[in-house]
Amino acid sequence: MKALIYKNNQISLEERKNPEILDPKDAIVKVTLSSICTSDLHIIRGFVPRANEGIVLGHEFVGEVFAIGEDVKTLKVGDRVSANCETFCGECYFCKRGYVNNCEKGGWELGSRIDGCQAEFVRVPYADNGLVKLPDGVSYKNALFVGDILASGYFGAEMCEIKSGDTVAVIGTGPVGLCAMMCAKILGAKKILAIDIDETRLEIAKKEGLVDYVFNPRKIDVEKEVKALTQNRGSDGVIECAGTSETFELAWKIARANAIVGVVAMYEENQILPLPTMYGKNLTFKTGGVDANKCGELVKLIEENKISTDFLITHIFKLDEILDAYKLFENKPQGCLKIAITN
């Protein structure tokens, strides 16, 4: 099969042997659509030390079950499925508490520690947990982002413990930020504020009806504007999806006292909490890799037309063209959100 291989901070499209069942809980999925994630770029740039050399990249995909191990209970060959970006056993200390990113036998494995999905076929460990069967009314396109960026957006919104009527600020209007906005609204936010320096993406957020206000830090004083909208308190919750030192600082500055800052961004360098300056705001920071344990619920929301991520696909490439797709995604021309790779 054709597969995108990562080695020595470079990628290449190569021929690889088709994956096989290695454990009775495995499934082999024939990949229909996959996508490129910013974390794939982090691997290539050397910012993910746990990533193994020589692996097939990719962890965001949908497809058809091609083969199953004898212990797989909820799936059969031919099922249409969406994949979770995380591998988790469902039985360890962390999994039982919903912390699937910290599974003692898994975590972010696909496309990092084991071969991922930017190929014709992929092996999925613990398939009963890692794959969600798609209802007839949900297309592959509809479900492509369920197990990664949509789950990440939901994770960020959920971390903020949103209450009905809250004002929630989302920093970064990339794909994860846009997903965080729609999830924040689902969870009860009354006002959603989008913050970004990319005017095109701010316009997309407005066009899709995901936000109430948009702010560009290069044009206005965001901290002042947020306080003006919130009776000088600040935002009830802040979801940081951008991943720079400037946006990390902005996140705690625009949060009201006793607010929660949910950080879902992946940074390429350490960030500093200026605790003396922040003293008295009594902020709670929640951070980390997505606990993608709500994929079934997200598929249901898509089926009920309460969430749609279809607009995020701005470019489509064939697997044979994936090297060109990576170049485009890395350069991020205006209007580029997510790239779908077809097999």
Describe the overall structure.
This protein is α/β, with parallel strands linked by helices. It folds into two domains: 2-145 and 309-342, Alpha-Beta Complex (Quinone Oxidoreductase, Chain A, domain 1), CATH 3.90.180.10; 151-287, Rossmann fold, CATH 3.40.50. It is 28% helix and 24% strand. It is built from twelve helices and 15 strands. It has helices spanning 38-44, 93-96, 127-130, 140-143, 146-159, 175-186, 199-207, 222-229, 245-254, 275-278, 295-303, 322-331, and strands at residues 2-7, 10-15, 27-35, 61-68, 80-83, 121-124, 131-133, 167-171, 191-195, 213-215, 235-240, 255-263, 284-287, 313-318, 338-342. The strands form three sheets. Strands 3, 4, 5, 6, 7, 14 and 15 form a seven-stranded mixed beta sheet that branches. Strands 10-9-8-11-12-13 form a six-stranded parallel beta sheet, sandwiched between helices. The chain has a two-stranded antiparallel sheet with strand order 1-2. α10 (275-278) links the parallel β12 (255-263) and β13 (284-287). α5 (146-159) packs across α6 (175-186). The model has no long low-confidence stretch (mean pLDDT 96).
